[in-house]
Every structure is written in C-alpha cells, then in structure tokens.
Amino acid sequence: MMLGALSRHVFLGSLWRRRLATSLSLLAIALGVALGLAVQLIHAAALDEFGRGMRLISGEADLQVVGPQSGFDDGLYPLLAQRPEVSEASPLLEIEARLPGRTTSLRILGIDLFRAARVTPSLLPLAEAPAGGEATSDRIVPTARGDFRLDALKPDALFASPAAATQLALASGAILKVQIGTREVGLRLAGSVPAAGVGQVLAVMDIAAAQQTFERIGRLSRIDIRLAPGTDRDRARQTLSALLPPGVSLRTPADAQSEIQSLSRAYRVNLTMLAAIALLTGGFLVFSAQWLAVVRRRQEFAFLRALGLDRAGLRRGLLAEGALLGLVGGLIGVVLAHGLTALAFRLIGGDLGAGYFRGLAPQLQWEPGLILAYLVLGIGAGLAGAWLPAREAARLIPARGLRAGDEAEAYQAPPRWGLTLSLFALAALCCLLPPLDGLPLGGYLAVALILVGAVMALPGVTPWAMRPLAGGRGILMRLARARLAAAPGQAVVAGAGVVASVALAVSMAIMVSSFRGSLDDWLTQMLPADLYLRAAAAGSSGYLEPAWVDRVGQLPGVTAVRPVRFESLRSAEGGEAIALIARHVTDSLGLPLVAGTTAPDLGPGTNPPAWISEAVADRRGLGVADPLSLPLGEQVQVFRVAGIWRDYARQQGAVVIELETFRRLTGDGRINDLGLFLAAGTDPSGVMSAIRVLLGTEVSEMVLPGELRAMILGVFDRTFLVTYLMEAVAVMIGLFGISTSFAALATSRRKELGILRHLGLRRCQIGTLLATEAALTAAVGVVIGLVAGAAIAWILIEVINRQSFHWSMDMQWPLGVLLVFSFAMILLAALAARLSGRQAMRQDAVLAVREDW
User: Fold this and answer.
1) pLDDT tens digits, residue range 202-246?
2) How far apart are alpha carbons 166 and 193 in whole angstroms?
3) What torsion, rounded to 10 degrees, do the Cα atoms 461, 464, 469, 474 define?
4) pTM reported for the whole predicted model
5) Listed residue (96, 51, 86, 17) closest to 568, CA to CA
6) Residue 641 bridge partners (DSSP)
7) In this predicted structure, what is the pLDDT of residue 571?
C-alpha cells in the first residue's frame, strides 16, 4: 500500500513539477482536440438545422418530385395527383429572390394553401391584422369572409420566417423590393411563418401569385407527395418515375440532406484530418517530454525498482502520466472547441467557410458522443506519446540506473532503417488505394505513416549528417558534433516535434501556394473581359433579356459582349444535380483545359460539343470524344465531350455548352452574366455609368476583372487563415518543444557540463555549445521535415484533393519562403536552447560533479 501511494505521488506529482513541459504537452493536445471537435460541432449543428429546414418544407411527404433549377411543366402535377398510389400532392415553386440594394437574397416558396395544409402544414402562414385591426392566432385557412385572413391569397402578400424578418429588418406591413429580370416589384409583409423557427431564413406566398410575380407561369420547382395508405414506397417510386420527363426525378426527403452532406463531407473531413495531424504533433511533444523525464529520473526509477516496484508497475505509472496529460488536454480542448464553435456561429455562421450551409443560423448543441470520442483521442495521443518512454524505463536495470552517468545510455538509439523504409513503402502503397465511399482514407493514412517514418529516420540520419563536420577546428563544434554522432537518440527526443511541425508547415505552404497559383491562373483564363455585368446569381430572379444585352452592346466604347447563362440540371443517371454553363467557347474565349480542345471538328451529323469539368469526368468515367447525355428542354440531348477543364467553383461538377445550342434546345434567351470587351483607351467607369443609366442603379452589379480576381483571392486567403494559424501554432509548439527539451537535457547532463567547466570552458561557452547542438539538431530535423513535407504536399495535391474535390493543381514551390523559414527555425532553436540552458550555465562546477568524487 505504501509503495502504491508512493508510486502515485512519484508519477502523477512529476507532472506538476515539470510545469513548462506539462503545459506545452497539454496545449498541443488541447489544440488538436479543440480544432477537430469544433469542426464536428459546427458541421453537426449546421446539418441538424439544414435537416430541420428540410423537414419543415417537406412536412409529411413520402416522396418529392424535383427537376432543374428553372423548374418543370406544372402539367405534371394533375397527372401525379390523380394516380391511385398518391393520397395527397402539393405543388411548390421555389424562388431565390434577388433584393435590390441588399447583399443577400431571399428564398421564397410559393405554396398552394389548400394542398400544403395536408402535406406541409408547417409552411402555412400566420396573418397579422393591419394597424388598428383585430389580431388572430389562427393559421391561414381560406374562407368566404373578406377579412385580412385572406391576405395569403393576394398577389403582393409575403409571409417571412422570424429569422428572415430579423435579418432583413422587416416589420408587419413593410414593403420588400424584389428584382424580376431588370425591374423591381414590391411585396408587402402580411404576416409570418411561425413554425419556421429561428434558424430558417425563408418566406412563403401563394403559388399562383409567385408564378405571376416572378414570371414563372406554368412552372413548378417541386411536388410533395403523400402516398396512399398501404402503398409500398419503393414500388410507388418505381412506378411514378416512369411517368416523369427527362431531368425530373423522384427522391425521398432524406435524399436532399444526404446530397448536401455528401458535398460538405469532404471539406469537413479534410479539416478534421488537419486537426488530427495537429493532435499527432501533440503526441510527438508528449513523447519528447516523457522521454526526457524518464532520462532525468532514471535513478529515481531504479530506486523504486530496488524497493520492490516491478517492471509492469513502472510501465503503468508512466502510461498513467501520458493518459492524464491526454485527459486534461482533452478536457481543455472540449472547452476551447465549444468556445470556437460559438464564435464561428457568430462570425461566419455554420458553413465552415465553404458556403455549403450559407443562410442557416444553427445553434450550439451538446454532443456527448462527439465529446467522448475526442476525449478518447486525446487520451490516445497521450498514451501513444508515453508508450516508448515507458517501454525504455521498464527495461532499466536497477543496479546500473543507480550509478551516476547512466543517462547517456538512453540516447544511444540504434538506426531502424528496415522499419523506416517499410513505413515509407506502406505510405506509397496507401496512395494507390481508391477512395472509400468518396473519402481519401488511404491518403490520410499515408500522411500519418510519413510523419512517423520521418521521426523514425532521425537516429539513422543524424550520425550520417554529422560526418561532414568531422574536420572542424572549433572545439565547440567538434564537441557538439561528437555528442550528436555518439548519442543520436538526443536528436530524436529534441527533434521529433521539429520534424512534425516543419513537415506540417511545409506541406501546407506548398499546397496552399500551389492552390493559390493555380486559382490565379484559372481566374486569368476564366475572366478575359474588361468589365463584367451580373444581373443576378445563378437561379436568382434577376436576369437580362436579349434586348437589354443588345442595348448594352451598343453603348459607346463597347466592342463586344459575351453573355453567360447558368442552369442546374438533374442528370438522367442517378438524379444528382450538376451545373450547366452556356457561353461562347469556340470563338477563342477558351477554358482552362486539361484535355481536349476548344475548337472541335464539327462535321455533319456530329453531336454538339460539351466541355466537362474534372469532377464530371471522374464521377462518370468520361473522356474526350465520349457521348454525354443531358436533359434539356425536358428531352434527353446527346453531346460529345470535346474537352475536360478545371473548375474550382463547383464541386458537384459542371458542363459547358455553346450558348446558341442552349437557346436552340430550350428556347430560353435569358442571361445571368455579361462580359464586356472595351475599345482601347476606354474608361471603364464611363461605361459603368452608362449601364446604370440604362438598367438602373440597383438592378445590376458591375465589377472589373482585377477587382473580382482580388476579391476571390482575398476570400481564398481568409478561407485558409485557419490553416495559417495552425501552421504558426505547430511551429511555436516545435520551438517550445526544443526549448524545453534542451533545458531538460542541460539538467540531465549537469555532470558532463561540470567536467567541461573543470577543463576550462566558461559559462558563455557552455551556452554556445548548447546552442550549437540545438542548431545542428534543428538543422537535421528541418531537412527531414522539408523532405517529409514535400512528400505530404504531393499527397495532399495529387491524392487527397483529387479524390475529395476532383481538382487538379500545378505544384508550385515557394522556395524563398521555405528557405527563410528553415533558417529562422534553426536560429530560433539555437536561441531557445541557449536561453533554456541558463540554469546549467549558472551551476557551480564543483557541485555538478560531486557525485563522482
């Protein structure tokens, strides 16, 4: 009992005595847990709110008929409503209304009040009495009475959810201006949609009014279906699907949530894996701190062994230290994660910076399962870091451990080239694995194997790297070289954190530089015009008619216009949504092609050309000259793939076709964007002023290509701000780790340093010796980290990003940044070691060697 109590005091109490090393280990684990858990909490809350919104607008529907962004013929509604499999059918028209003078749009749902009451009752609006009138709490139910409760049937009545009314600062009776084409229409806020709650930004109005107001006569976006009692849903889905035209499909309400979840999953998993790498770095720091503690306490452990503590008890005690570090660090990380999540919801909402959940206002939720999982990961990191030191301590022979000077034996780590090369070979094999359910798990495993292999290479590389310094004349350099060559384990202990942090920082620097450079080149090719005019975003209610395009093209100084039309289609295979871009391609305005040509050979009888993005090519297994079927004009149209191009804007995939082909097949002449080419010497500001006079000041957006490029790159830099912060934290942890490592090394080597003092070295020379050893250790770690970081960057670019987002990039090497970073790491490591070794320099030489007398 006494020995057990003493052991607990020795093991757990040592963490308190080593405050700085313990604090850094806790910080590393806490940051890894906090970042990973915050990503999961944000995504879980956003998905929950998105799912609640889907349940809100789906109501009690068993199936939903969905089509392209522009909608489908409403003649399909009575055909389905009369089927014996269908009990109730409710039509719906969805509009993304552009709001002139505002930076946001509003989602407006046109509903049939009579049908929605039976299928989606939560969408029914609540009328509000006009000023001085009588209020009611009844939902809108059309009656014969001519009071204000019939407002829902009026063509200008709009009912906003509480979140929409708050966001747009609208009071009852206020007029909200919406854009239809290039004109403005005012809608009156006649009440609310109370069942929408506080997280859904939307509004509803009568479907007939919506079709008339937004010029969508005869068009529907969706039909919600309740099946007749006893009807098998799968069989009904198969039967009803046969009645649908091309481009229109049946899905369950859960399919929509699965679709957005699959789109956002890759982005979420990548962020989570970055946090896992940070957690792995924390594990390396725990390893360094625990190994040094074991070396310093060898006599203490030998004494406990002599008192009767067995090997297993010693191992359990040290593993308990690591587990406690992981548990406390994990608890701190859980608190930090909830703070980061609340801050993220307040600043950027729930879209994780990628736009998947824009417009939602999720609330922070308590997720016990996620919290427990990340606590286990934190404990696992602590245990993994303490395992090797505990194994080394358990092998201690008490008689040798009680002898002074035995510490040096702990640093004689033999090279393990077989294991190291096996790890690298296994990493290469993992890169060849296909994605598992769309996730590049092989790539992530390869990153972890390279990090572990790089640390394992330290004891073998260090003696080899010291050989060129053997002929040095400086006594301090020779001593430092001899120390590292004879005891390469010191480089492992002090350099493990450096290798991990440098590899992470270098890989992310190369990946971000490659991505940014490729994005810049992509923007240059995609933005060839001198001025861009946007009527509205894709799917919004704003657009330009051909007549207005012609008028803009006739303005003074405009030499040519290049219109663009955006659409979203449901492909025939699987019903997934892809983006369609109709524009001029073969008139020298090219695309960023990776295969094919923009000037295909269009012989007689040839299918019209189409250019597919890499995402479409990968997901459908298509190549140049392959046929491509697209549902256009409610008919299946066959195209021929003329090229494959890079697209960094649409993860779900995009297809480009000629604008004239789109107009011929659909009869749709509307335009979303307009590129303007100006005559030499023309001032763009004058053309912009003329366009405002022609179209109005608030119904169009104009931007110069340079400003648009700078804005997009600015968004890119803000998106990767978290990555930059993670790199900075990793580097600081590495520097703190080498500082504490050399402080502990200086303390454990007090006898050796005392003898050097007896031989004539001054205190300042002892400090220079420690700084030299740290610089050499950091140099070896930085070189290995650079090589490992380059390998990880290649995996991130060619494996992980390609399998996650289907993006290709041109690898770019920021050599200047990497060179400055490497020298800064070495100099800072030397400075940190010198400052941390001041205690050893102040120690009296006689006291340092008194045990040997």
Assistant:
1) 899 999 999 999 989 999 999 999 999 888 888 898 899 889 988
2) 13
3) 70
4) 0.77
5) 96
6) 610
7) 67
